[in-house]
Amino acid sequence: GGTEQQLVIPSLEETPDITRMMSLGKAVCYWNVPVAANSCCDKHALRSQLQHTVDMLDSRPCMTYNVGERLQCSRCKALLASPSAGETSVGRKCDLCGYAGGTFAAAGALSPAQLASRVGILEPQD
Asked: 3-state secondary structure string, the chain?
């Protein structure tokens, strides 16, 4: 058998592959990095830089991914930051797909013990 897995936020739905690809595509649009001049397209030119960044993350010590409180888009299933105090999710657009016609499922923050076994990139473990 393989390694047992669970969702980062078990109370929400899994984010599908297409949404993961969309979010990575959006992320690399913020990067100004060297690319091969003879690349066939922007996607493949940036792919090597994306892989380089993943390799750098893999070489760093383990960390906890502190997701905090999140909403989830009902259309693309991307995770979104919860509204600030006094705000609501009514009329909110998804940060990734722009969908505004649906509901946003909410999930509370996970405890440090729940996060301890998850792969992360934001907060170093002691």
From this structure: CCCCCCCCCCCCCCCCHHHHHHHHHHHHCCCCCCCCCCCCCHHHHHHHHHHHHHHHHHHCCCEECCCCCEEEECCCCCEEECCCCCCCCCCCCCCCCCCCCCCEEEECCCCHHHHCCCCCCCEECC
Please name the residues in contact with 57: beta carbons below 8 A apart, sequence gap of 6 or more. Answer: 121
Of 69, 72, 119, 111, the C-alpha closest to 92 is: 72
Give the pLDDT confidence of 9-45 residue by residue, as tens digits. Answer: 888 999 999 999 999 989 998 999 998 889 898 888 8
Q: Give the C-alpha separation, 10 to 13, whole Å.
A: 7
Structure tokens at 112: 């440090």
The residues near 27 (Cβ < 8 Å, ≥ 6 apart) are: none
pLDDT of residue 88: 66
Pair 70, 107: CB distance under 8 Å: yes
Stated pTM of the model: 0.71
